[in-house]
Design goal:
Elements (H helix, E strand, L loop, with lengths): L8 E4 L1 H7 L6 E6 L2 E9 L8 E3 L15 H4 L26 E4 L4
Parallel strand pairs: 1-3
Antiparallel strand pairs: 1-4, 2-3, 2-5
């Protein structure tokens, strides 16, 4: 799968990306009050311009353990384990969060 998609992608509407100075294929920071991750911008017109869609569960098995870079791009960093959560599954009831997006320029 990594051969087909080597990097985590965050989908962004082209209008939103233009407003933020983000181009297709650029690394961007996705930030919430809970944390910050980076993913590669993929422009996508099939969504509301106020929404971004970040991929979850990313890690880098080629990096040294024990964490293998799991905290760099994994969308779970942006969420919280605090209440409320689904009592049956133990997961957050909704995976929609307010976030801030900007280009990675410091690397």
């Amino acid at each position: 799968m990594r051969e087909r998609q080597p990097y985590p992608m965050v989908q962004v509407h082209p209008e939103t990306a233009a407003e933020l100075g983000i181009n297709e294929g650029e690394w961007v920071w996705i930030e919430t009050p809970r944390g910050r991750i980076k993913q590669v911008a993929q422009l996508f017109t099939g969504m509301d311009p106020r929404v971004v869609m970040a991929q979850a569960s990313w890690w880098y098995p080629e990096e040294p353990g024990p964490d293998h870079g799991v905290w760099r791009s994994n969308a779970n960093v942006l969420t919280s384990n605090d209440l409320p959560f689904d009592p049956a599954m133990g997961s957050a009831t909704f995976r929609a969060l307010l976030c801030r997006l900007h280009r990675v320029e410091d690397e």
